[in-house]
Amino acid sequence: MSDREPQPVERQLPTDEARDLLALVREIARREIAPKAAEEEDAGRFPREVFTLLSESGLLGLPYDAEYGGGDQPYEVYLQVLEELAAARLTVGLGLSVHTLASYALATYGTKQQQVEHLPAILGGGLLGAYCLSEPSSGSDAASLRTKAVREGDDWVIDGTKAWITHGGVADFYTVMARTGEDGPRGITAFLVPGDAPGLSAAVPEKKMGMKGSPTAQVHFDGVRVGDERRIGEEGQGFTIALAALDSGRLGIAACAIGVAQAALDEAVAYATERRQFGRPIADFQGLRFMIADMATQIEAGRALYLAAARLRDAGKPFAKQAAMAKLHCTDTAMKVTTDAVQILGGYGYTADFPVERLMREAKVLQIVEGTNQIQRMVIARHVAGPEAR
Q: For 348-382, how does the pLDDT look when each residue is reduced to its tens digit (9 = 90+)?
């Protein structure tokens, strides 16, 4: 591995507070996350203590209201925090993005009483969340989910199985979409379910090609009983809540993807400037210089795209199309850049002695989670060309 220190990303931040925040995040990433990333990913170890540190540092609730323990930061700032964390270790960056996604329903659609009761612990009290929408037979077609919640007096009883759940088995709370009415999107309701609820269990985590330190598991609900006070929003509003959360969550995935790509570029540049062949650094050869130039350009384009979408969101303007574009472009960029980084390192890039091999494996999942890139293309096309003819 190279000893060459990468140059920090030049960022346009709106306030001095945001600049101080990013400096804190870089220090945490440098000191507490990056040094252990390779070893812990190889061992499949989930870094719960890192999330505790992030909570204690005020980083688990950045885009939410300070009244409830959040950071009152715009998405423009929050996403750049995600990028820095993902560059150090995707398990941490994506984990924060998922926690923010899981918190969205309560923070945006919850009643005042619900927010007062639950948000402080979620945003700054050390709790960690998971988001439960997908099922074994319901992925891209999320509106066809079969997990049911049946009303019994003042309670709801939830039965079913959720799949591909990040933090499954380690989360302290689950934001769960369950069917309470008719088939289709109008029959789905959102619930806030405690992680220790009787009847809730997680399967053995999936064995994945990357992100081995982040548990992804099926979560089973066997007669899980929650009070109506844990229903978020109106009955039948759950699918609307889920899609709104995913619009914001896709920006989180985009930022994480650019973090992974930036880390791969930094490694490739460090290697290419030190590795010598034919009497000079391989970075002197035009073929590699052009690869590096293309990698850097695509990263900058992705960063600009996700920040433009974030600024629309911060201004209260529609941003769903731009979120889909950002998720699509940034995750495809991460896959291309990490692949090229492996190529630049040659045989060394294919070994676990250098991080680009791990980054390439991790980049792949970002093209899949929170709506595959094929789904993103459908979303974008509907905005541009109108809905499909039926």
A: 999 999 999 999 999 999 999 999 999 999 999 99
How many whole angstroms separate alpha carbon 84 and alpha carbon 32?
A: 13
357 is annotated as an active-site residue:
no
DSSP secondary structure letters along 275-334: -EETTEEGGGSHHHHHHHHHHHHHHHHHHHHHHHHHHHHHTT---HHHHHHHHHHHHHHH
Strands (E), 62-123: none
How far, in Å, CA of 88 to CA of 330, rounded? 17
Asked if residue 336 lies in contact with residue 318, where contact means CB atoms within 8 angstroms, the answer is: no
Q: Which helix (H) or strand (E) holds 110?
A: none
Answer for the pair 106, 87: CB distance below 8 angstroms, yes or no: no
CA 82 to chain centre: 8
In angstroms, rounded to a whole number, what is the distance separating the alpha carbons of residues 297 and 88? 21
Distance CA 354, CA 337 (A): 15
Is the model's pTM score more than 0.85? yes
Task: Choose, from 40, 234, 370, 388, the residue flagged as catalytic.
Answer: 370
Residue 131 parent element (H or E): strand 129-132
